[in-house]
Amino acid sequence: MKFVIVFICFLFTALSNQSFAQSISIWEKLCAKNDFAGCFNLGFMYEQGKGVRQDKFKAVELYTKACDGGHAGGCTNLGVMYANGEGVRQDKFKAVELYTKACDGGNASGCSNLGFMYSNGDGVRQDKFKAVELYTKACDGGNAWGCHNLGLMYDHGEGVRQDKFKAVELYTKACDGGNARGCHNLGFMYDLGEGVRQDKFKAVELYTKACDGGNARGCHNLGLMYSNGEGVRQDKFKAVELYTKACDGGSARGCFNLGFMYSNGEGVRQDKSKALQLYGKACDLKEEVGCKNFSILKNQGVR
C-alpha cells in the first residue's frame, strides 16, 4: 500500500461564542488598530466565507498584514494561498519564503508545510534531510501532520535511516493528535506487524478511527477486515457499507472491491450493471484491475 505525504491546508482559529457577525465586527476594529491576531482571524473568515462573502483576495490582504506584523500564523496561511494560487498568482518560491518566516516565528504548521516543500522539491531544491529536520520541529511543536509526515520518512527511510519502530511511535503521536492518516498508517503497521507485534484487533480499532475521521483508505481497509473476518466477526454487509464510504471518498480500491461485491452478490443483491459502473470508476482512479474487470463485463454484454 502506497502512503502519501499530505499538505496541511490552513491553521484554524476557534471562534468565540459570539455570532459570526459580532466576531467579524470586533476583528475589523482590532485589525484597524494593528492587532494582528484580529487581522489573522478576519482573514480566515474571508478565506472560508464564514459570516461574510468568501473573498480570497481580501484574505490575502489580511494575512499579509498579519504576517508583516509578526503573526506567524498569518505567514503560514499566506504561504498556503501562494502555494495553491488562491487570491494571488501561484508562487511556490514565495510560499517557501513565507513558511520559513512562519517556522522561524515558532509556528509548527509553517514548519510542517516547509518540510513538505523540501521533501517534494516545490519552490526549493529537494532535500529529504532538511524535510526530516523541519518535520521534527513541527512534530515537537505539536503539529500532528508533522508527526505523520516524519513517520513516513522513518517508515520508508527517506532522509533518515529506515526505522519501523520509530515510524510506529510517530504515527501514534499523529493519531493521538487527531490525524486520520496517522491512524490509518498505524493501523496498517498493526495489520502487518511492522515495527510492532501484529494485532488485527488493534488494526480494526485504528482503521475505524481513521475512517470516522474521513480517511478513505481507513474505510477501505476496515472493509477488508469485515469482508475477511480479520480482527472482527465477518460481516459482508458491513464491508459493503465501508467500501461504499471509501469509494465515495476517492479510494480506487474501495470502488473496485465494492464492484466485486456487486458482481458476485456478496453483502448486496447481485447487480452486474452496478459492478460495471464501479469498476469504471476504479479504472478512472487508475486502478488497473478495475480497468481489466470493466473490460471483462463489457465483453460479456453488461451495460
Describe the 3D structure.
The longest helix has 13 residues, at 20-32. Among the domains are: 22-97, Tetratricopeptide repeat domain (Serine Threonine Protein Phosphatase 5, Tetratricopeptide repeat, Alpha Horseshoe); 107-177, Serine Threonine Protein Phosphatase 5, Tetratricopeptide repeat. Helix 13 crosses helix 14 (252-264). Mean pLDDT is 94; it is low at 1-17. The chain is mainly α and 303 residues long. Helix content is 68%, strand content 0%. It has helices at residues 20-32, 36-48, 56-68, 72-84, 92-104, 108-120, 128-140, 144-156, 164-176, 180-192, 200-212, 216-228, 236-248, 252-264, 272-284, 288-299.
Strands, helices and their partners?
Blueprint: H1 20-32, H2 36-48, H3 56-68, H4 72-84, H5 92-104, H6 108-120, H7 128-140, H8 144-156, H9 164-176, H10 180-192, H11 200-212, H12 216-228, H13 236-248, H14 252-264, H15 272-284, H16 288-299
Helix pairs in contact: 1-2, 2-3, 3-4, 4-5, 5-6, 6-7, 7-8, 8-9, 9-10, 10-11, 11-12, 12-13, 13-14, 14-15, 15-16
